[in-house]
Structures are given as structure tokens and as C-alpha cells.
Amino acid sequence: MNIVGELNYHVRTWRPDLCNALSRLSRYLKDTPVVAGRMLVRTLGYVKKTAKWKLRLRATKPLSDINEPLIVEAWCDSNFADKSDDRARSHMGWNITINGVLVVSKSNRQTFTANSTHESECVALHDCMEQVMMTTVLLEELGFTVGRPIKQNCDNNSAVLTYNSEQPEWRSPTLATKYYHSRDYVDNEDIRVIYIPTGDNNSDIHTKFL
């Protein structure tokens, strides 16, 4: 528990590449199985080999004026039916930047089992949008201006098409609720969902263990 707590500190400060490892290890703080010990040893070996890695925060567009709109951008990704999960639940993650500087990075397991890659990606989009809007509201309360629509990048073409065109039928009310709630952001032009290739999706790292 102490080691996982130390990893949490590093993840929250300068090591977002450990988000997925922290998420998986956090499940085994009670009744720890042998496999969790092996995962921890591998994680510590990875940390030792990459101890000199640094997270460089560099704005792609520095502000020339305090009243200039900030550029908020997000990337999200999800796998499907994670084999390491006993209920085949997907693992998802996202990154949010302000003017190119990483401010939010998260990796976590979805709360229910998705029926397809499309559904797991839509859930990841929904959760990322919630965090994007929370970050945007906080910035605006602090007196900043945020440019809209905010770019929401996703590497699943079917999920992007779903959010950019009306798809009224879902297999479960849980997915329907998530979809229509986040579709409001798209309809109000607060967020624009954009397709990007997997190679350009910097949140892909949050769906893989180290």
C-alpha cells in the first residue's frame, strides 16, 4: 500500500505514463494475489530504468495577452474486454491540455461491461467530456476565456460518427443516458469530436500496462 501511494504521487506530478499501472495495482490493496506482486515488481523495474525521464511542460501557443482565449484540447481512448479483468470490463484513459500543456491525465476501468469496442469508446468519450467541461468551467470561474468548440480527439471512427450524427437506439439505458448527456455538449457547440489515427492519439498509453 505504501509503494502504491508513492506511485500515486509520481503519477499526479510528472509521470503520466504510470497511470495505467497505478490503476491496475490499486485494485489489489486488499487480499493481494500473487499476480499483483509480480505486477508491482515489473512496475518498480520500469521506474528504475526510466528514473531519468522528465515530463516537459511547454506551451505550443504562449499567451500574448491575459484576455486571449485558452485552447483546451482532449484525447481519449479505450480498449475492449480487458483480459486482465475478471468481468471483461474495458480500460480507458484520457489526456487534457491547455495551450499544449498537459493538465489532466487519467486511466481507469469502466464501471460496466461494454458489448463492443464502439460502446467502450463512447463511454470513454462521455467521461472525458465531463472532465473537459469541469476543467473549462473552473478556468472560466478564474476569469479566463476558453475557445470553443473544444477539440475532443478519438481514434475510433464509429464512435466519432455516432457523436457527429444522431443515433437514437442503444442496447441499454445506461449507455443511452451517457450518450445523450454528452451529446448536449456537441449540440451546443461546446465540444467537437474529431477522428485521429491511433498513432497520433497520445492517450493510447493509458490503455496498456507499461
**Beta-strand content bin:** 15-25%
**Overall pLDDT:** 90
Question: Based on DSSP secondary structure assignment, what is the total number of beta strands?
Answer: 5
Fraction of residues in H or I helices: 25-40%
Main pleated sheet? 5 strands, mixed
Strand ordering within the main sheet: 3-2-1-4-5
What form results from the Cα inertia axes?
globular
Q: What class, by secondary structure content? A: alpha/beta
Q: Name the poorly predicted regions.
A: none
Q: What is the straight-line distance between the termini?
A: 19 Å
Radius of gyration computed on alpha carbons: 18 Å
Number of helices: 6
Order of helices and strands: HHHEEEHEHHE
Q: What would you say this structure looks like, in words?
A:
The protein has 210 residues and is α/β, with parallel strands linked by helices. 40% of the residues lie in helices and 16% in strands. The protein contains six helices and five strands, in the order αααβββαβααβ. It has helices at residues 2-13, 19-25, 34-49, 117-141, 157-164, 173-187, and strands spanning 72-78, 91-98, 101-109, 150-154, 191-195. It has a five-stranded mixed sheet with strand order 3-2-1-4-5. A hairpin with a 2-residue loop joins strand 2 and strand 3. Helix 4 (117-141) packs across helix 5 (157-164) and helix 4 packs across helix 6. The longest helix has 25 residues, at 117-141. The chain is globular.
Write a compact overview of the structure shown:
40% of the residues lie in helices and 16% in strands. The chain is an alpha/beta fold.
